[in-house]
Design a protein that fits this description.
By secondary structure, the chain is mainly α. Helices cover 75% and strands 0% of the residues. The chain is built from 19 helices and no strands. Helix 2 runs antiparallel to helix 8. The longest helix is centred in the C-terminal third of the chain and has 29 residues.
Length: 448
């Protein structure tokens, strides 16, 4: 019986103890969630490679068109805009290329903020509308061609190219150079296809208007496929309110990064001179018309290997260690174009220059991205680089055109644009050597 009161007396104590414990648990701050680690990268898989395929198709339509502009340059100078100088005509292609790259500045930020599909859809519509408008231009109406091809197509390209490149970084880290190389190989494949297709259509029974429309319908199919298969994987900065903001001040004060950009701008200032003028050069030196038509496809076919093989090597030896030799060799090869006055010389120059210039074009993107301290910076850093490079591309080929032909009926003086192109490409390589040294000290490694 004595045990019963003792048991009853203990109940208030137990109740009080439970209440106090419950109160303490409610009052105590919740345990802090562990800080999120760096995201994992699948390094492959179905969706990853579908996204790479979509990027390949986007670069096929955009950069592939830019690299086949030599076909337009030749046709315009002989037929459609025959009253214009080589420099005037090259402004169309250079404006298109400028907007292709300069569009990277706004679209880089839009991509980081989660507007990938918006950019891809809107840019595709602008590009397709403009290329169909190009098929309606009238002979010797320079402003019509400039607006449709230089401005309209350039704006559309600029909106879709950088997001198509940057989204690859959502799926690959260790194999990023390889993945980006496959995407950029789309530009060489497109350039080969467009160069052969357009040369035969423009100079055959089909003619210019329907030749442009046929390529436009092909672009429609490819860009529609790209819009359907490409997907982002990581949450955007907009979807992560606690995400660390991009430190613009740190990017703008990064000396190694800016040396890399200045070097890239110098290289691109001269790199596309052979792509714009090799077909004209071959025809003026009396090469068979068939070979002259295939001079640019040969160079672009070689560039396809140049945009894949160096990227595989870049994953093992570092992008800078592969890009710098490719750039130096490209600058030296400019002088080999003087020997491209016969069949053998044209073929050898096209193969070698296409390969090594392609190596630079494909690796510059991972090289710029290697300066990023955080994944969120990649789109912004690549966008700034593209914007600056765009100004070099805007002026490079028109300068070469003014150097090669000073007036409409004047002779072509080829040594001047080729020496100019070689000097600026080699100067860009020197900047990249200095940029690599800075990055090497920062990361304490020579595999860069």
């Amino acid at each position: 019986m004595a045990a019963t009161p003792t048991s009853d007396d203990s109940k208030p104590e137990q109740s009080l103890s439970l209440g106090k414990s419950s109160y303490d648990a409610m009052a105590a701050p919740p345990p802090e969630a562990p800080a999120p680690g760096p995201p994992d990268f699948p390094e492959g898989g179905r969706q990853a490679w579908l996204t790479v395929l979509g990027g390949f198709l986007v670069l096929f339509c955009t950069f592939g068109t830019v690299q086949s502009f030599g076909v337009y340059q030749d046709y315009y100078s002989r037929v459609l805009l025959s009253q214009r100088t080589a420099s005037d005509i090259s402004w169309i292609g250079s404006m298109q290329t400028f907007l292709l790259f300069a569009g990277g500045l706004p679209t880089g930020k839009l991509f980081d903020d989660g507007y990938f599909h918006h950019c891809l859809a809107i840019g595709s519509l602008i590009y397709l509308f403009s290329i169909f408008m190009l098929s309606l231009v009238q002979p010797n109406q320079y402003y019509q061609v400039f607006l449709a091809q230089g401005v309209g197509m350039g704006i559309g390209m600029g909106i879709i190219m950088l997001p198509a490149l940057s989204v690859t970084s959502h799926y690959f880290r260790r194999r990023r150079s390889v993945a980006i190389g496959v995407v950029i190989a789309g530009s060489s494949t497109g350039a080969v296809v467009y160069s052969i297709l357009l040369n035969n259509l423009f100079n055959g029974k089909i003619g210019f208007p329907w030749g442009v429309r046929i390529s436009a319908f092909m672009d429609l199919a490819f860009l529609l496929t790209a819009n359907l298969v490409m997907k982002t994987r990581l949450p955007s900065r907009r979807e992560r309110p606690n995400a660390k903001p991009v430190d613009i001040r740190a990017i703008l004060s990064d000396r190694g990064y800016w040396l890399c950009i200045i070097g890239a701008a110098l290289v691109f200032w001269g790199l596309f001179v052979p792509f714009f003028y090799l077909q004209v050069f071959a025809e003026l030196h009396g090469l068979p018309k068939t070979l002259a038509f295939y001079a640019i496809p040969i160079m672009n076919a070689s560039s396809l290997f140049g945009r894949t093989i160096p990227n595989f090597l870049g994953d093992y030896f570092g992008p800078f260690n592969i890009m710098i030799p490719c750039t130096i060799i490209s600058g030296g090869l400019m002088y080999l174009m003087f020997a491209a006055t016969g069949v053998a010389g044209t073929v050898v120059f096209g193969i070698l220059y296409g390969f090594f210039s392609g190596g630079f074009i494909s690796i510059i993107t991972p090289a710029v991205a290697s300066f990023s301290r955080d994944l969120n910076e990649i789109g912004t850093r690549i966008g700034i680089a593209c914007f600056v490079i765009g100004f070099a591309l805007l002026t490079g080929t028109p300068i070469a055109g003014a150097l090669v032909q000073q007036n409409h009926n004047g002779p072509y003086i080829w040594w001047r644009p080729l020496v100019f192109a070689s000097i600026v490409v080699l100067a860009g390589a020197a900047c990249h050597i200095a940029s690599r040294q800075i990055l090497s000290k920062r990361k304490s490694t020579h595999v860069l």
